[in-house]
Specification:
There is one protein chain. This protein is mainly alpha-helical and 90 residues long. The protein has a domain of 47 residues. It contains 3 helices and 2 strands, in the order H-H-E-E-H. Strands 1-2 form a two-stranded antiparallel sheet.
Length: 90
């Protein structure tokens, strides 16, 4: 049985053809939130993730789903706040 050498043109890079996986710290930077918030969201299953053994990884699509789910709709009604400018009495 003969084995042929590996052709470097055929071997794909790990991230070629698919999105790269982000760590919790990278996902936190992407979302601009603390890493502990991302870790807690994973524990509560509020964000999609990929588990590779004990490691948690995210695709950008997973994080985009979280962003879209949290978007607030724009209301046409403008709410004005009227505050009493007088000082409170003690």
């Amino acid at each position: 049985m003969t084995t042929s050498p590996i052709n470097p043109d055929v071997v794909a890079e790990p991230t070629q053809g698919r999105s790269s996986l982000l760590t919790i710290d990278e996902a936190a930077a992407y979302l601009n939130v603390p890493a502990r918030w991302v870790a807690e969201a994973v524990r509560q299953r509020k964000v999609r993730c990929t588990r590779i053994g004990k490691h948690v990884r995210f695709r950008a699509e997973h994080l985009e789903e979280l962003i879209v789910a949290g978007e607030q709709p724009v209301t046409t009604e403008v709410v004005t706040l009227h505050r009493d400018r007088r000082r409170a009495r003690l």
